[in-house]
Design goal:
- It is a single chain.
- The protein is elongated and about 70 Å long.
- It has 248 residues and is of the alpha/beta class.
- Helix 4 links the parallel strand 5 (83-93) and strand 6 (107-111).
- It is built from 7 helices and 9 strands; from the N terminus they run βααβββαβαββαββαα.
- It has 2 domains: 2-152, Alpha/beta knot (3-Layer(aba) Sandwich); 185-247, tRNA(m1g37)methyltransferase, domain 2 (Trp Operon Repressor, Chain A), CATH 1.10.1270.20.
- The protein has helices at 14-17, 20-27, 64-75, 96-103, 141-152, 200-218, 230-247, and strands spanning 2-7, 32-37, 50-51, 61-62, 83-93, 107-111, 128-131, 185-186, 189-190.
- A 5-stranded parallel β-sheet has the order 2-1-6-5-7. The chain has a two-stranded antiparallel ribbon with strand order 3-4. Strands 8-9 form a two-stranded antiparallel sheet.
- The longest helix has 19 residues, at 200-218.
- It binds adenine.
- Residues 87-89, 113, 131-133, 135-137, 140, 143 line the site of adenine.
- Adenine binds at residues 87-89, 113, 131-133, 135-137, 140, 143.
Length: 248
């Protein structure tokens, strides 16, 4: 997969993209990431990318001309047609289902928003606006990094162990079960005995139940579409009722 990122702050990306799993995924060719400076497509001495809003009001607006030129030039860098994503607090909220959708595309082009927003005509060039949550950041660089990280780790070969991306929170619409490592007793806190029993069927059953319990306690909204057996439904209903009773 190829990801192109266009930003006025390209220097924000190097340390994150070149470290750990993302760095290795690039070095091994699993993913190709290129960061581009929007100012390279300005045509004035000050390399201006924003301007005052028509109609007045506070803040600055991202100008369309450099963005259109950048999108044309960056698109032409590779044969695959990019799926163009704009980062914006007004976009579709990112979740693991959207991450999977985007990870399946051969090429993404992420345009990072800045200032108070985009000139509306820029939206005509986007396939999707994406928000990483209902809060406002100073710009789209951190959202672009979040999106790039989440999408990259799903590429085949990006993670060391092929299981790591399947047995985790949200992969089956549930939160992950509790995990423990050595020592078996730490400051008086013991690992659940089933996990050191060596009985793999019992361990799997315990993990499924704890995953259901945790999801019912913390994120009951996730259970709405979950595929549960009748016994599992009964169990989560009990947990949810207890949670509600404890809250009242
Ligand atoms: N730009 C500013 N805040 C943002 C958010 N929450 N998601 C995406 N882009 C943003």
């Amino acid at each position: 997969m190829r990801i192109d990122i266009i930003s006025v702050l390209p220097e924000m990306f190097g340390p994150v993209l070149d470290t750990s799993i993302l760095g290795r995924a690039q070095a091994s060719g699993v993913i190709e990431i290129a960061v581009h400076d929007l100012r390279d497509w300005t045509d004035d001495r000050h390399r201006t990318t924003d301007d005052y809003p028509f109609g007045g009001g506070p803040g600055m607006v991202m100008k369309p001309e450099p963005v259109y030129r950048a999108l044309d030039a960056v698109t032409a860098l590779s044969d695959a047609e990019p799926f163009v994503v704009l980062t914006s607090p007004q976009g579709r909220r990112l979740d693991q289902a959207l991450v999977r959708e985007l990870a399946a595309r051969p090429r993404l082009l992420i345009l990072c928003g800045r200032y108070e927003g985009f000139d509306e005509r820029i939206l005509a060039r986007a396939d999707l606006e994406v928000s990483i949550g209902d809060y406002v950041l100073t710009g789209g660089e951190l959202p672009a990094l979040v999106l790039t990280d989440a999408v990259s780790r799903l590429q085949p070969g990006a993670l060391g162990c092929s299981d790591s991306a399947t047995d985790e929170s949200f992969s089956e619409g549930l939160l992950e079960y509790p995990q423990y490592t050595r020592p078996a007793i730490f400051r008086g806190m013991e690992v659940p005995p089933v996990l050191v029993s060596g009985d793999h069927a019992r361990i799997a059953a315990w993990r499924r139940r704890e995953s259901l319990r945790r999801t019912a306690e913390r994120r009951p909204d996730l259970l709405v579409g979950a595929a549960l057996s009748p016994e599992e439904s009964e169990f989560v209903n009990g947990v949810v009722q207890k949670e509600n009773a404890d809250r009242d």
